[in-house]
Predict the 3D structure of the following.
Amino acid sequence: MSSATYGRRSRWAALLAVLIALVAIGATYAAITRTAKASAAPAEEATSAQIKEGKNLFLEGCSSCHGLKAEGINGDTKAAGGNGGPSLLGVGAAAVHFQVSTGRMPLAGPGAQAPTKAVQYNEEEINALAAYIGSLAPGPQIPTADELKYEDASLAEGGELFRTNCTQCHNFAGRGGALSDGGYAPSLMNATPQQIYEAMVTGPQQMPIFSNETLTTENKQAIIKYIQTLKTAPNPGGQDLGSLGPVTEGVFVWIAGLGLVIAVAVWIGAKVR
């Protein structure tokens, strides 16, 4: 066999080897891609199903006030006999979860603000509603498990941040207080860590929004830890009278003291006779 013939066969063998290698790589890639798509399909279908369920729940229980497309109902429609409600576009899944999980929505009736009541939906339905509204426009999302890990946060920092940003409305003990125009800051004693976090990022009612530029995730975790500590902290002063400060204490002293003075005066009058 001549060297020229051997060289030609070597080149063909090399090209054939490269072709086989390319085919093998392509087949392997296609197999991996199909496997990845197959494993991802159930999650996508679950998300689509959740959004579909949320849409059905919204149309049934929320659209009469917020519109069929969550665009809100304006004043003219309200004046014509409809129920006026704000647009939900852009409020985010976190706002929906907070409002519905605390029983504020569906709204019990018109007033200065939405009061809490018995929750109307289970957790699965609440998450579905939140997923649907969240799919309509970008907005604050439901906090992740990592964002709610407050156990290792600084309690001292949380107390300082709470006194700086929260006591003006929720009072020093987190028990709430009166606001202007008939509103009020609710007690935080029954709020879950998730609801507290969602309230900070969405600003329900008259509450301001605390973005990550104002309070970082670590700051929010510290505040949550402080509030959780308030729930179980013993009261060295005895009966807290609702932890509403000098108002309730003054009322108690006034009623008890005045009652005692009247009782003594009646007793003295009876003795004189």
Observations:
- Confidence is low (pLDDT under 50) at residues 35-46, 76-81.
- The chain has ten helices and two strands.
- The domain at 143-236 is CATH 1.10.760.10 (Cytochrome Bc1 Complex; Chain D, domain 2).
